Input
Amino acid sequence: MTSYLIGIDDTDNLASRGTGALSRLLCAQLRAAELVEVAGITRHQLFVSPQIPYTSHNSSICMTVQLLRAQPDQLADVCRAFLLEESAVGSDVGLCLTSWSAVTPAILEFGKQAKHEVLLHTRAYQLADDAGILLEGLTGDGGGVIGALAAVGLHVGGNDGRFLWMDGLRELNGVYTAGQLYQAARIDSIRALAGAEPPMTARIDVRPWPRPVLIEGRAVLLVEEVCDDEQCDWRILPKEVIRQY
Output
């Protein structure tokens, strides 16, 4: 199966559901139609500046999928129709669709720069055109193309973003052994910031917000050891730390 990336940005307004929620709905629709298998959805924090219009946090989304029955053109058509139908009034939706192998070093660099600089639509379109990948502004002024392309570059770069969804992740709530967590979701690694890994029998409290982060291309659940809790040996790091990714 061929791996594809779907980047989206700026689908919402202050009164609507966010782009993350919309990405989960889109992936659910694609899975229900048996067009793709969804590997994961990651959120990427971009530069916050008065020069950049954004709804709340200036983050964008990348969905990683594997084609089943769908051809790339069909997948693009379904994504485009969904976003035009479901995006909020006043949004400036950007859509990027590409195979993993088509993402160039220049797009990886563009993603990194989008975290620290104000970038231009024209450059995003030029990079996409050079790589032969789809990049479209669907509503408003199409400002979301910058974030959509950046999300793809950051995800392929492998060291940015946190997972909003992977199979089994959002059902996790409570205390599990490390072995149970590996079986329940597509987590690649469970470890502390310094690198220590809990044994498979270690009890880990994942409440209230289990969000693996993307490190070296792997979904990593970051945890810390607990010394004063009879119910668990480890717990996930606080939201404030995970939100830095």
